[in-house]
Specification:
Elements lengths: L5 H5 L10 H10 L1 E5 L4 E3 L8 E6 L2 E6 L5 E7 L4 E2 L1 H6 L6 E4 L3 E6 L1 H10 L1 H27 L2 H16 L6 E3 L5 H8 L3 H14 L2 E4 L2 E4 L2 H10 L1
Antiparallel strand pairs: 1-8, 2-7, 3-6, 3-8, 4-5, 4-7, 9-11, 10-11
Helix pairs in contact: 4-5, 6-7, 6-9, 7-8
């Protein structure tokens, strides 16, 4: 895991790319830096903390667990991402848990400093608004998919979404490391066996190819066309 300090650490955060050095220096002075091991809880569901966190290294996952222990995953967070901003804005308990998938380094910005930064740095406010709008669009699409699409189509849609997030504009995309079949199942509200069956079907069609811990989508356009037909 890389070590990060001050302004150099915050320059890695996409949300802060348009904020100048004086602002970065002010934010860095307010941040503390923390590390979490793979599998460790970073934020708990219904926690009353209101800090905002920026992911500098590693990968984290946003999930909620039912009383019976069933996991529902919403999104994965990669370096440069932000999380915890909703509680900082409205002061309500955390709406989901954030778990470290791999070893993670985060910058933690207190709620008061975050709200002050939104007021003083309009580019940051606009970036956060765009991020929140994007999350609303994604969740709206997922509600529609859950209501209208069969499991096969939901698998296709999730693979398309992952590919477009990782490598936008490309037809040949490698997911590395590939999400497990259980990971995909928790995102599309189904069971692992259904995902495994569909991945094998796509392999037979030559649309995807398993390469060790990687999953190569060989023809994203064809996968999109299947989804469109469905």
């Amino acid at each position: 895991m890389q070590k990060h300090h001050g302004i150099e650490a915050l320059r890695r955060v996409g949300f802060l790319s348009e904020v100048g050095d004086p602002a970065l220096k002010a934010l860095a002075a307010e941040c503390r830096f923390a590390e979490f091991g793979a599998g460790q809880l970073i934020i708990g569901h219904l926690d009353t903390s209101c800090d905002v966190l920026f992911l500098l290294d590693g990968q984290a996952r946003v999930s909620v667990y039912s009383a019976q222990g069933k996991q529902v995953s919403f999104r994965d967070i990669r370096p440069g991402g932000i999380f915890g901003e909703m509680a900082a804005i409205d002061g309500a308990p955390r709406s989901a848990s954030i778990e470290a998938i791999s070893d993670c380094t985060v910058a933690v910005l207190p709620q008061a400093a975050f709200i002050a930064a939104l007021t003083h740095y309009p580019p940051l406010m606009l970036a956060v608004l765009r991020h929140l709008s994007g999350q609303v669009r994604v969740l709206t699409a997922r509600v529609f998919e859950f209501s209208t699409l069969a499991v096969r189509s939901r698998v296709h849609s999730e693979l398309v979404r992952l590919a477009e997030t990782i490598s936008p504009g490309h037809n040949d995309v490698v997911l590395a490391p590939a999400p497990t079949h259980q990971d995909i199942a928790t995102r599309i509200s189904t069971h692992r066996e259904a995902v495994t069956r569909e991945i094998k079907h796509l392999e037979r069609l030559g649309i995807v190819q398993r390469q060790g811990r990687k999953l190569k989508i060989r023809d994203l356009a064809l996968l999109r066309s299947l989804l469109s037909e469905e």
